[in-house]
Predict the structure.
Amino acid sequence: MTTTAELAPADPASGRGRSPREIVTAELWEKQVGLLQRDYPYDSVMAGRVLGQAYAYLLTAMAHRGEQLGLAPSSLVDIGVHTIILDTAAYAELCDRYNSGRFLHHVPLVEAKDDGSVMRTARVLAEDGWEVDLPLWADAAKCSPCHPGSDSH
């Protein structure tokens, strides 16, 4: 994964950021990678990259609940977000465990916005210690719609 120094404060011991693979069980990871491969023209490597950034995004949104940071995924990362949230039982468990039992709603808007929120989100992920796969955030000119100023993504 591409992690840039200006984005990611790395773990001083390893030089690497946190990985969602430390949180998601191998069984669930493989299932969701498979779902991405079923629904998109991804090989297992690309599906894993998208899924990893989607988990980092969702866990960051949960960690900053109520801060109204205006977090927004890129369109590629949003594909992974949809894969995660459509697996509703696993997503509910994720919310229970990492969002104090509160469901983190997905409230998309129709119009895409062009306000820099995607790259700001990538920076917040990096500040929280996640590995940032920068090429997956490169479509920052038009981010996927999200519900600003709420505890949703």
